[in-house]
Amino acid sequence: MRLLFYIDGRSAIALNWMNFFLDQGHEVHLASTFACQPDARLASYHLTPVAFSSAKRSTGASATAGVQRSRQGGVWSASLVQARTKVRQWLGPLTLPGAARKLRQIIETVQPELVHAMRIPYEGMTAALADPKMPLLISVWGNDFTLHAPATALMRDYTHRALRRADALHADCQRDIRLAQSWGFDKSKLAFVLPGAGGIQLDLFSPSGEQDKTPLVINPRGIRAYVRNDTFFRSIPLVLARQHQVRFVCNTMAGEAQAQGWVNELGIAANVDLLPQQTRPQMAALFRRAWLAVSPSTHDGTPNTLLEAMACGCFPLAGDLESIREWITPGVNGLLFDPADPQALAASILSALEDPTLRQRARQINLKLVAQRAAYEKVMPKALAYYQEISAQAAR
User: Fold this and answer.
1) C-alpha to C-alpha distances, 74 to 69, 77, 252, 253, 255, nearest whole angstrom
2) Disulfide: which of 165, 173, 209, 291 matches 128 by Cβ 3.0-4.6 Å?
3) What's the confidence (pLDDT) of residue 84?
């Protein structure tokens, strides 16, 4: 097959998908919304900025989508990230017609059999405006409907347009298939659920023999507009009041002004490590060492970090969202909490730390669950089968 991916080419997710099809002998073209240097045997590479993505610096292929950020004064505070998200929601749609014209030219040159736009804002919106003659597959990310779609009148309109134009839909949770249909996706069209990153590579994310003897809690989410890191940091003194020895590590928060401010304000520096962005092998090592992984998000589908933590035997705690309940049964293989309530999070952390039987039982359940439902070597062949079905339907 000749495939065109329209995606942030810096992301590990992009590489996971593209490399699978390259390894299978397919012809892969990339139209990236961000400047990148993809480490892949691509048939062609095109830079197609949208919603001011050209303002960000070029990065290597090892970066995680949405994590690499150009910084003013070396830091982003949580409030600045939220403000930046709002600006893109208001002004980003104004850039779509121009981006669509450029993408249409690329599509006419490449003539792919299938175009895969990997999230609704702003790749799916742009691809829908480009209106390719061949099938358009759109992936939904966990906050596309709950955070972005209702944000402004233009975001609502372009979300409707994207869902009406899509020939097929990929989501990482069943909730988003249901929401997509309420936003205009035709129920008669093909829709499928697979982990967003194409599955978990179990040769990398796997358990070790022993976790740290000192309780270690990891927050892998970084500074994001939809992650309640204020709740996370304010829960720490409540935990330390009963469990003095617990350590907390926070990925992608070194040099972040807001994170350092919370640490100083709450007097928890002795128990908290703010880490720079970690590579995937480094994250796997941290998950293997950690007792608990905390995801205090208010908008999510199935976070890749959640599945990676579970694959490493780390006990998951997450915001109580419908999509998360597709993977976690509270009190059985994880715990859920109100992401706006520091006391609720502290109580969940303490409950998990003080119940080794629960952690061990959850570990065994989660290792099997991820292997059965999210292993990369099982997920991506299913993706290939769906691609072939989409093309066959178009041919008919």
Assistant:
1) 10, 10, 13, 12, 7
2) 165
3) 85
